[in-house]
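Support request, please re-run this one:
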Amino acid sequence: MASVAPPAPVQSYWQMLALPRHDAMAVLGVCVIAVLAFGSSAAFGLSFNPPLHLMLLMPAVAGLLAFVYHLWRPRENQLFQVLVYSALWSLLPTAGTQLTFLASTAAMPLQTDLFAAADRAIGFSWIDWANFVRARPWLEWVTAKAYVSYALQPYLALILIAYFGSARRNAQLMIATMIALVITIVISALIPAVEPAHAYGFKTPAWEAHEALRAGQRSDLPYVGIICFPSFHTAMAILFTATYWRMPRCFWPAAALNAVMLLSVPYSGDHYMIDLIGGLVVAAIAIKLTWRLVPEPA
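Re-run finished. Output below.
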Protein backbone atom coordinates (compact mmCIF):
# COMPACT_ATOMS: atom_id res chain seq x y z
CA MET A 1 0.00 0.00 0.00
CA ALA A 2 1.47 3.38 -0.99
CA SER A 3 2.23 5.80 1.81
CA VAL A 4 0.10 8.91 2.03
CA ALA A 5 2.06 12.15 1.76
CA PRO A 6 1.21 14.88 4.28
CA PRO A 7 -0.68 17.93 3.00
CA ALA A 8 1.53 20.42 1.17
CA PRO A 9 1.38 23.16 3.87
CA VAL A 10 2.36 20.67 6.60
CA GLN A 11 5.15 19.22 4.48
CA SER A 12 6.45 22.71 3.69
CA TYR A 13 6.44 23.67 7.37
CA TRP A 14 8.40 20.59 8.41
CA GLN A 15 10.91 21.27 5.65
CA MET A 16 11.46 24.74 7.13
CA LEU A 17 11.98 23.16 10.57
CA ALA A 18 14.66 20.79 9.27
CA LEU A 19 18.19 21.71 10.31
CA PRO A 20 20.93 22.35 7.76
CA ARG A 21 23.13 19.30 7.31
CA HIS A 22 26.11 20.78 9.21
CA ASP A 23 23.99 21.79 12.22
CA ALA A 24 22.27 18.38 12.21
CA MET A 25 25.69 16.68 12.26
CA ALA A 26 26.76 18.76 15.26
CA VAL A 27 23.57 18.08 17.20
CA LEU A 28 23.60 14.37 16.40
CA GLY A 29 27.27 14.02 17.30
CA VAL A 30 26.89 15.63 20.71
CA CYS A 31 23.75 13.59 21.43
CA VAL A 32 25.53 10.33 20.54
CA ILE A 33 28.48 11.21 22.81
CA ALA A 34 26.10 12.18 25.63
CA VAL A 35 24.03 8.99 25.38
CA LEU A 36 27.22 6.89 25.29
CA ALA A 37 28.72 8.73 28.27
CA PHE A 38 25.68 8.78 30.51
CA GLY A 39 24.59 5.27 29.63
CA SER A 40 28.06 3.82 30.17
CA SER A 41 28.51 5.68 33.45
CA ALA A 42 25.24 4.25 34.72
CA ALA A 43 26.19 0.75 33.53
CA PHE A 44 29.58 0.91 35.27
CA GLY A 45 28.15 2.47 38.42
CA LEU A 46 29.89 5.85 38.11
CA SER A 47 28.17 8.88 39.63
CA PHE A 48 29.37 12.46 39.78
CA ASN A 49 29.06 15.56 41.90
CA PRO A 50 27.14 17.75 41.05
CA PRO A 51 24.58 15.11 40.06
CA LEU A 52 23.74 14.64 36.41
CA HIS A 53 20.25 16.15 36.56
CA LEU A 54 21.74 19.47 37.69
CA MET A 55 24.42 19.38 34.98
CA LEU A 56 21.71 18.80 32.36
CA LEU A 57 19.61 21.77 33.45
CA MET A 58 21.36 24.41 31.32
CA PRO A 59 21.55 22.38 28.08
CA ALA A 60 17.91 21.31 28.52
CA VAL A 61 16.68 24.90 28.93
CA ALA A 62 18.81 26.21 26.05
CA GLY A 63 17.74 23.32 23.83
CA LEU A 64 14.06 23.86 24.62
CA LEU A 65 14.36 27.59 23.89
CA ALA A 66 16.09 26.79 20.60
CA PHE A 67 13.30 24.39 19.61
CA VAL A 68 10.51 26.84 20.50
CA TYR A 69 12.24 29.68 18.71
CA HIS A 70 12.74 27.52 15.63
CA LEU A 71 9.04 26.70 15.63
CA TRP A 72 8.21 30.40 15.87
CA ARG A 73 10.75 31.71 13.36
CA PRO A 74 12.09 28.79 11.30
CA ARG A 75 13.82 31.02 8.75
CA GLU A 76 15.83 33.06 11.28
CA ASN A 77 19.18 31.43 11.99
CA GLN A 78 21.32 33.73 14.11
CA LEU A 79 19.59 33.61 17.50
CA PHE A 80 18.76 29.96 16.84
CA GLN A 81 22.47 29.22 16.45
CA VAL A 82 23.23 31.01 19.70
CA LEU A 83 20.62 28.95 21.56
CA VAL A 84 21.32 25.56 20.04
CA TYR A 85 25.11 25.82 20.31
CA SER A 86 24.80 27.10 23.88
CA ALA A 87 22.96 23.86 24.61
CA LEU A 88 25.62 21.78 22.86
CA TRP A 89 28.57 23.53 24.50
CA SER A 90 27.04 23.08 27.96
CA LEU A 91 26.28 19.39 27.30
CA LEU A 92 29.54 18.25 25.66
CA PRO A 93 31.90 19.02 28.60
CA THR A 94 29.69 17.05 30.99
CA ALA A 95 29.57 14.05 28.68
CA GLY A 96 33.26 14.36 27.78
CA THR A 97 34.36 14.44 31.42
CA GLN A 98 32.36 11.31 32.18
CA LEU A 99 33.93 9.56 29.19
CA THR A 100 37.43 10.44 30.40
CA PHE A 101 36.68 8.91 33.79
CA LEU A 102 35.26 5.80 32.13
CA ALA A 103 38.39 5.48 30.01
CA SER A 104 40.58 5.90 33.08
CA THR A 105 38.91 2.93 34.79
CA ALA A 106 40.86 0.75 32.33
CA ALA A 107 43.84 1.45 34.64
CA MET A 108 46.46 0.89 31.96
CA PRO A 109 50.13 1.02 33.08
CA LEU A 110 51.33 4.54 33.78
CA GLN A 111 53.78 6.02 31.28
CA THR A 112 55.08 8.85 33.44
CA ASP A 113 58.74 7.98 32.85
CA LEU A 114 58.19 8.05 29.09
CA PHE A 115 56.77 11.58 29.11
CA ALA A 116 59.35 12.85 31.61
CA ALA A 117 62.11 11.46 29.39
CA ALA A 118 60.55 13.12 26.33
CA ASP A 119 60.60 16.49 28.11
CA ARG A 120 64.23 16.02 29.09
CA ALA A 121 65.06 15.15 25.48
CA ILE A 122 63.67 18.48 24.27
CA GLY A 123 65.29 20.38 27.13
CA PHE A 124 62.17 21.33 29.09
CA SER A 125 61.95 21.27 32.89
CA TRP A 126 58.51 21.73 34.40
CA ILE A 127 59.79 22.85 37.79
CA ASP A 128 62.07 25.47 36.22
CA TRP A 129 59.18 26.85 34.17
CA ALA A 130 56.86 26.85 37.20
CA ASN A 131 59.45 28.73 39.26
CA PHE A 132 59.96 31.22 36.42
CA VAL A 133 56.24 32.00 36.27
CA ARG A 134 55.76 32.15 40.05
CA ALA A 135 58.63 34.61 40.37
CA ARG A 136 56.63 37.02 38.17
CA PRO A 137 53.20 37.63 39.74
CA TRP A 138 51.95 39.53 36.70
CA LEU A 139 52.76 36.55 34.47
CA GLU A 140 51.16 34.12 36.90
CA TRP A 141 48.00 36.25 36.95
CA VAL A 142 47.83 36.57 33.16
CA THR A 143 48.40 32.87 32.52
CA ALA A 144 45.84 31.89 35.16
CA LYS A 145 43.18 34.07 33.52
CA ALA A 146 44.05 32.77 30.07
CA TYR A 147 43.88 29.16 31.29
CA VAL A 148 40.32 29.48 32.63
CA SER A 149 39.19 31.28 29.47
CA TYR A 150 38.93 27.76 28.03
CA ALA A 151 35.50 27.49 29.66
CA LEU A 152 34.21 30.84 28.39
CA GLN A 153 35.62 31.04 24.87
CA PRO A 154 33.06 28.67 23.29
CA TYR A 155 30.16 30.91 24.32
CA LEU A 156 31.83 34.06 23.03
CA ALA A 157 32.75 32.26 19.81
CA LEU A 158 29.24 30.97 19.12
CA ILE A 159 27.81 34.51 19.37
CA LEU A 160 30.49 36.11 17.19
CA ILE A 161 30.22 33.35 14.61
CA ALA A 162 26.41 33.44 14.52
CA TYR A 163 26.27 37.18 13.83
CA PHE A 164 29.51 37.89 11.97
CA GLY A 165 30.90 34.62 10.64
CA SER A 166 30.20 31.82 8.22
CA ALA A 167 26.90 29.98 8.61
CA ARG A 168 28.83 26.71 8.95
CA ARG A 169 31.56 27.81 11.33
CA ASN A 170 29.75 26.98 14.59
CA ALA A 171 29.16 23.47 13.32
CA GLN A 172 32.77 23.17 12.20
CA LEU A 173 34.07 24.19 15.62
CA MET A 174 31.74 21.79 17.40
CA ILE A 175 32.54 18.86 15.10
CA ALA A 176 36.30 19.52 15.32
CA THR A 177 36.01 19.62 19.12
CA MET A 178 34.21 16.27 19.17
CA ILE A 179 36.84 14.68 16.94
CA ALA A 180 39.65 16.08 19.12
CA LEU A 181 37.87 14.89 22.27
CA VAL A 182 37.46 11.32 21.03
CA ILE A 183 41.09 11.09 19.85
CA THR A 184 42.34 12.53 23.14
CA ILE A 185 40.27 10.19 25.31
CA VAL A 186 41.38 7.09 23.41
CA ILE A 187 45.09 8.00 23.55
CA SER A 188 44.98 9.05 27.21
CA ALA A 189 43.28 5.79 28.16
CA LEU A 190 46.03 3.75 26.48
CA ILE A 191 48.99 5.77 27.83
CA PRO A 192 48.01 7.47 31.11
CA ALA A 193 50.59 9.30 33.21
CA VAL A 194 51.13 11.12 36.48
CA GLU A 195 51.13 14.89 36.01
CA PRO A 196 54.50 16.64 36.46
CA ALA A 197 53.29 18.70 39.43
CA HIS A 198 52.46 15.51 41.32
CA ALA A 199 55.93 14.14 40.61
CA TYR A 200 57.34 17.16 42.48
CA GLY A 201 55.03 16.67 45.46
CA PHE A 202 52.27 19.11 44.56
CA LYS A 203 48.62 18.16 44.98
CA THR A 204 46.60 18.18 41.76
CA PRO A 205 42.84 17.59 41.41
CA ALA A 206 43.55 15.45 38.34
CA TRP A 207 45.77 12.99 40.15
CA GLU A 208 43.50 12.85 43.19
CA ALA A 209 40.70 11.82 40.82
CA HIS A 210 43.01 9.25 39.19
CA GLU A 211 43.89 7.81 42.59
CA ALA A 212 40.24 7.61 43.59
CA LEU A 213 39.38 5.73 40.41
CA ARG A 214 42.31 3.33 40.75
CA ALA A 215 41.32 2.72 44.38
CA GLY A 216 37.85 1.69 43.24
CA GLN A 217 35.84 4.82 44.02
CA ARG A 218 32.82 5.04 41.72
CA SER A 219 30.57 7.62 43.39
CA ASP A 220 30.78 11.35 44.11
CA LEU A 221 33.38 11.84 41.39
CA PRO A 222 34.32 15.45 40.50
CA TYR A 223 33.97 17.11 37.12
CA VAL A 224 37.69 17.81 36.58
CA GLY A 225 40.04 17.28 33.67
CA ILE A 226 42.18 14.17 34.16
CA ILE A 227 43.84 13.84 30.75
CA CYS A 228 47.60 14.24 30.67
CA PHE A 229 48.68 13.29 27.13
CA PRO A 230 47.72 14.68 24.69
CA SER A 231 46.73 18.10 26.01
CA PHE A 232 43.09 18.79 25.17
CA HIS A 233 43.58 22.36 26.39
CA THR A 234 46.19 22.81 23.67
CA ALA A 235 43.96 21.32 21.00
CA MET A 236 41.15 23.68 21.97
CA ALA A 237 43.46 26.72 21.93
CA ILE A 238 44.25 25.91 18.29
CA LEU A 239 40.60 25.24 17.41
CA PHE A 240 39.39 28.43 19.12
CA THR A 241 41.88 30.42 17.06
CA ALA A 242 41.31 28.63 13.76
CA THR A 243 37.55 29.15 13.97
CA TYR A 244 38.04 32.91 13.40
CA TRP A 245 39.90 32.41 10.13
CA ARG A 246 38.55 34.97 7.64
CA MET A 247 37.31 37.07 10.59
CA PRO A 248 40.41 39.28 11.07
CA ARG A 249 38.89 41.51 13.75
CA CYS A 250 38.34 38.42 15.88
CA PHE A 251 41.26 36.28 14.71
CA TRP A 252 44.14 38.35 16.07
CA PRO A 253 42.70 38.93 19.58
CA ALA A 254 41.84 35.21 19.74
CA ALA A 255 45.34 34.28 18.56
CA ALA A 256 46.89 36.46 21.28
CA LEU A 257 44.65 35.08 24.03
CA ASN A 258 45.23 31.48 23.03
CA ALA A 259 48.97 31.99 22.68
CA VAL A 260 48.96 33.00 26.34
CA MET A 261 46.74 30.01 27.13
CA LEU A 262 49.35 27.75 25.53
CA LEU A 263 51.96 29.25 27.84
CA SER A 264 49.68 28.54 30.79
CA VAL A 265 49.19 24.85 29.99
CA PRO A 266 52.53 23.55 31.32
CA TYR A 267 52.39 25.87 34.34
CA SER A 268 49.02 24.38 35.37
CA GLY A 269 50.97 21.32 36.52
CA ASP A 270 48.81 18.84 34.63
CA HIS A 271 50.93 18.62 31.49
CA TYR A 272 54.40 17.92 30.20
CA MET A 273 55.67 19.93 27.25
CA ILE A 274 55.30 16.82 25.08
CA ASP A 275 51.58 16.91 25.90
CA LEU A 276 51.32 20.25 24.10
CA ILE A 277 52.96 18.79 21.02
CA GLY A 278 50.47 15.94 21.12
CA GLY A 279 47.62 18.45 21.44
CA LEU A 280 48.84 20.35 18.38
CA VAL A 281 48.82 17.14 16.33
CA VAL A 282 45.32 16.26 17.56
CA ALA A 283 44.05 19.74 16.60
CA ALA A 284 45.57 19.46 13.11
CA ILE A 285 43.88 16.08 12.56
CA ALA A 286 40.54 17.40 13.86
CA ILE A 287 40.66 20.43 11.57
CA LYS A 288 41.57 18.31 8.54
CA LEU A 289 38.75 15.81 9.13
CA THR A 290 36.22 18.55 9.88
CA TRP A 291 36.94 20.39 6.64
CA ARG A 292 36.29 17.14 4.80
CA LEU A 293 33.00 16.60 6.61
CA VAL A 294 31.83 20.23 6.52
CA PRO A 295 33.69 22.11 3.78
CA GLU A 296 33.30 25.82 3.24
CA PRO A 297 31.10 26.65 0.24
CA ALA A 298 33.07 27.41 -2.92
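The first strand starts at residue 48 and ends at 49. The two ends are 43 Å apart (CA to CA).
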